Amino acid sequence: MSESIMSDDYCDTLCELFNIGMGRAAASLSEMIDEEVLLSVPSLEAVSYRDAMEKLHEQSPDPIDVVEQYFDGDFSGSAFLFFGDQSSLELVRRILGESYASTQLGELEQEALKEVSNIILNACFGCIAEVLDCEIESGVPVLLRGNVGDILDIERMHIGKEPLVLTLSMSFSLPDNLIQGQVSLLMTSESIRKLIRELEQYTMLYT
Amino acid sequence: MNNCTAVLSEVVFNNTHCGLLVVDADFNVISANQWFLSAASLEIEKIERQSIFELFSFAKPQGLKRCIHDACRFGLSSIMSNSLHPKLFPLYSRFAKNGDVMDQLCTIKSIKHEGTRLCLLQIQDVTDSSTRERFLSATTETLTMFSLAVQHSPSSVVITDAKGVIEYVNPKFTEISGYLSSEAKGQSYFKLFSGNDEGVFQRNVWQLLECGQEWVGERCLKRQSGDKYWAKEHIYPILSNECIVTHFVAMQDDITQFKNITRKVSYQATHDDLTGLLNRQAFENILRDTVDRIGDNEQHVLCFLDIDQFKIVNDTCGHVAGDELLRQLAVMFSGLFVNGETLARLGGDEFAVVLYGHSLATAKVICENLIERVADFRFRWEENVFGQGISVGMTEVTSHTTSSIEAIKQADSACYAAKDAGRNRVHIYQDAEDILVQRQGDTYWATRINEALENNRLVLYAQPIVPLQSDRKSSYEILVRMLVSDGGIIPPGLFLPAGERFNLSHRIDKWVIDATIDWMNKNTNEIGHIDHISINLSGISLGNEALLSHIISVIESSSIEPGKLAFEITETAAIANLTHANHFISTLREYGCKFALDDFGSGLSSFAYLKHLKVDMLKIDGMFVKDMLNDPIDEAMVRSINDVGHVIGMETIAEFVEDDAICQRLKEIGVDYGQGYGLGKPVPIDQILVDSVAIA
Q1: Which domain, by its residues, includes B313?
Q2: CA–CA dist B484, B481 (Å, integer)
Q3: B476, B481, B483, B486 alpha-carbon torsion, rounded to 10°
Q4: Is residue A1 one of the residues assigned to a domain?
Q5: Which of A73, A95, A96 lies nearest to residue B75, judging by beta carbons?
Q6: Residue B502 burial by CB count (10 A; 0-12/13-18/19+): exposed, middle or buried?
Q7: Is residue B26 part of a domain?
């Protein structure tokens, strides 16, 4: 059982915030590809790094495509967008309108996947930054392929000993596809504490 | 920042090999580097402090606005890829030949300058990599397609290096050969199928392949399991641009099943279903080859074999029995011809064999031996046992033989002659003249018969059938003669066979019947002392429905007693047309007419079908009668036919009673009647009235 770090109320609040962001991201994507795209975050949880890793290993035992964007500023950490199995390939091909059968992402496809992920992740960041009135500086998106363990390596990310993980399950639906993905925000423990404090203020002010 | 660094920064800014554009939160241009300005063909003075959305037109400006906003407001970075935003800015490369807008990858970053967040757009020219990427994807797509085509090919595909060592096998190869990809890779393609045996075949194929040529053929190969299979194989080299062999491709199709079917079909096409012997077509082909290739000193003999009693078995016991008889005889023939002779069933009860390297004389010995073997053979079907005989026609096949068709004609006509001569014998085809005379004779007589029928030149003769026991009445057999213009009389032996061959028998029969009944009608009062008058019917008449109705109407319109009228049919004719014969017999017997089975015993058939023929009298073949005093077997035959006849309730008549001694013996045996020169010669019919008066 993963230990809850944030109360259900805060989780719900955050979930709502992310859904606002997703609405914007979906609008951007729809405009870009001239098709209706729906994005939603049905659930969210905050767990310890260890619990999160366990779960991710279980979900994706094979190498996967992940888009990473680090962030810094009032909050710091790294955001990851995961696509299971062939979902990334499917998503990009659907967006680019391609049909051929290679199992590898080409360079153009990688760029497109990064951009789509960038739009989603920026929407999340933007939303938090806006609502909580803070700044989140982010890096450019990077595409990684490998095992969950290698990608979410704490050493590589310089994120401190006990980072916490905010996991957003996400569904990405196109007119005839439903693609499941997941956003994981790895934050330093002080960042999450700060986030909780900000949420307290926000809740006091707006709810 | 000191001055030196500021100058350096500006130098770097303007010498960076990508476009740099700085805008503020209101999208106004703050700065642009040299690269961007020259690619856009603009000068900084003309764009400073102006909104990029006024300077440039964007297909979908919202995305860029959002990115700039995110950067200036929150510090977020974004990218805008070439695939989703093709040709974002109207930038042209100096190197572009065709004046196309360059492909761009735009990275949007937040920068802080003097406490204000600005947005830095970094634009890279990705025309080359995009082009390469597009080319690569197109190539990959094509290669993927080819690779899938090989992967899913219904043929086995193997790719080897220039030395024949396997580098790739497709799944079909594994399916056909049984070798997994991992087992096959690294092995020599040829050795995989033929072990280490470097056969001539392999060397030849290898030589061909090394010269850059391909090889196509069919081979019997071994699967991993050791099973054999037939493969249609196609091996071809792949040549480099320098015409050096780099690889070989070996394709295989498993044609084992196809081969089996072909073999089966070809067997069926050349063999007789029933007996498994060659069929007519195959036989004719072989014979044609034999005739075509025959050497000057070579000599073969073609024999036609015809089963004499086949029809009897078929008609009395049914087709199943007939088929079984043919099968058994085929087995016997196959057992006798084991030295490479070509044996075939031509159809029906006809068989043929080519005896290679034989003269007519030696072939005759072989065939006579065959006839003996067949004579010893007994065919059993349910409770019936049939003796068998064959008629054999032989002809020579030499370099003088003009064609296989000619040889077949000759053997066929010789076989016909053998049957004509009394069956169960060999007849050697006689060259041209004899047959020609015979044929001319036939035509001659056919014309004469027609003339005689039209001009009433046939006359009736009668021969007495004399009672041997007690005081029964005599009867007469009607015989026919032909009158010729010079007043001569022609015996029936000369013209009746021609009549039969030219299908005139039933007309002769009709004439005889009409004339006889007419005669009886005229002499009703004078024939009281005669038991009956007997008329011969040919086999063909038995199936003639019109003749039957004619006889009935003639009998009905005349005043004669039908009981005074008898018909004789030969055993062979009756059996050959058993169904018709029975119908004919039973119809006329209802009117009271009598029937006699003529020449009984000559057909070598069994007594079995006597049960099927409802006749009143049995005429014992004269062959047995004439020598019965000297030949105990003949006597036994007469005795047994007589006994059997009596048991079935038939009266018996012996033919060919030539003298008193025979007559005496027949009386002793108990034969009812006798007929022959010893008892009375045939005389013109009117004379029997006189004779009878004399006898009376």
Answers
A1: 276-430
A2: 10
A3: -100
A4: no
A5: A73
A6: middle
A7: yes
DSSP 8-state code for residue B612: G
The reply to whether B244 falls in a domain is yes
Residues B448, B406 share a domain: no
Q: Given pLDDT bands bounded at 50, 70 and 90, which one contains residue A181?
A: confident
- Residues of A contacting chain B (CB within 8 angstroms): 28, 31-33, 69, 73, 95-96, 100-102, 106-109, 111-112, 114-116, 118-119, 122, 125-126, 129-130, 135-141
Report the alpha-carbon distance of residue B444 to residue B462 in Å, rounded: 26
Is B141 in CB contact (< 8 Å) with chain A?
Answer: yes
- CA geometry: angle A158, A160, A163, nearest 5 deg: 110
> What digits encode the pLDDT tens for the residues B397-425?
988 888 888 898 889 888 887 877 667 88
Q: Name the residue of chain B whose CA is nearest to A74's CA.
A: B74
Q: Give the structural domain span for A94.
A: 8-206
What phi, psi does B553 have (nearest 5°)?
Answer: -65, -35
Q: Find chain B residues with C-beta within 8 A of A137's C-beta.
A: 74-77, 110
Radius of gyration of chain B (CA): 53
Give tens-digit pLDDT for B218-260.
888 888 888 888 999 999 999 888 888 899 999 999 999 888 8
User: What is the rounded average pLDDT of the residues B576-589?
Assistant: 86
Comparing alpha-carbon positions, the chain A residue that sits nearest to B63 is A28
CATH number, domain containing residue B282: 3.30.70.270
| Domain termination site, one of B131, B161, B188 | B131
CB B666 within 8 A of CB B657: yes
Q: Select the more confidently predicted residue: A195 or B446.
A: A195
- Is the CB of B138 inside 8 Å of chain A's CB atoms? no
Chain B residues touching residue A102 (CB < 8 angstroms): 137, 140-141, 144
Domains: count for chain A: 1
The rounded distance, in Å, linking the Cα atoms of B137 and B126 is 16
* Inter-chain touch B76–A106, beta carbons under 8 Å: no
Give the integer Cα–Cα distance in Å for A19 and A11: 12
Contact (CB<8Å) A137/B75: yes
**B 47-86 residues with CB < 8 A to A:** 60, 62-63, 66-67, 70, 73-85
* pLDDT mean over B266-291: 90
Average pLDDT over residues B302-316: 84
Q: How far apart are CA B255 and CA B258, in angstroms?
A: 5
In a domain, B249, yes or no: yes
Query: Within 13 Å and on the Cβ side, how many CA atoms surround B105?
Result: 17
Tell me which residue in B62, B63, B70 faces A126 most closely, judged by beta carbons.
Answer: B70
Q: Which of B277-286, B408-417, B672-681 has the lowest mean pLDDT?
A: B408-417
Which of B83, B134, B140 minimises the CB distance to A102? B140
Q: Which residues contact A180 (CB under 8 A, 6 or more apart)?
A: A84, A87, A169, A170, A171, A172
- Is the ipTM value over 0.95, yes or no? no
Q: Which of residues 145-184 of B touch A (CB under 8 A)?
A: 148
* Amino acid at the residue B184: A
Beta strands at B342-347 and B350-355: parallel, antiparallel or unpaired? antiparallel
Q: What is the pLDDT of residues B210-222, one digit of tens each?
A: 888 888 988 888 8
Question: Is the domain of B396 the same as that of B327?
Answer: yes
Confirm whether B144 is domain-assigned.
no
Domain count along chain B:
4
Which CATH number belongs to the domain containing residue B228 in this structure?
3.30.450.20
Partner-chain residue, chosen from A101, A111, A140, that has the shortest CB–CB distance to B82: A111
